[in-house]
């Protein structure tokens, strides 16, 4: 299970969501991602599935390389200022 805490209009800054995810009983492992970060949950799920899918694994490698390039480009842009 992947827990995605959500900050809603009637939440306690998302803490109620975090705490409910953390209360899962023994025997039910839960990975928890950052508040309002369903994208990271999707990436984590894809990584889990990719352990048995070579094509997905290759696509994840490409995706992560693109993320790395974005970070390097952003850093270079900041350094140039």
Please describe the topology of this protein.
Layout: E1 2-3, H1 15-22, E2 31-32, H2 38-50, H3 54-80
Parallel strand pairs: 1-2
Helix pairs in contact: 2-3
What's the count of strands?
Answer: 2
Alpha-beta classification = mainly alpha
The percentage helix is: 55-70%
SSE order, one letter for each helix or strand: EHEHH
The rounded Rg comes to: 17 Å
Total domain count: 2
- Tell me about the largest β-sheet: 2 strands, parallel
Task: Give the strand order, joined by hyphens, for the main sheet.
Answer: 1-2
Q: Can you count the helices?
A: 3
Which runs of at least 5 residues are low in confidence (pLDDT < 50)? none
What's the pLDDT, averaged over the residues?
92
Shape: flat
Strand content: under 5%
The rounded distance between the terminal residues' Cα atoms is 43 Å
Fold and architecture overview:
The structure is a single chain. The chain is mainly alpha-helical and 81 residues long. It folds into 2 domains: 1-50; 52-81. Helices cover 59% and strands 5% of the residues. The chain is built from 3 helices and 2 strands; from the N terminus they run βαβαα. It has a two-stranded parallel ribbon.
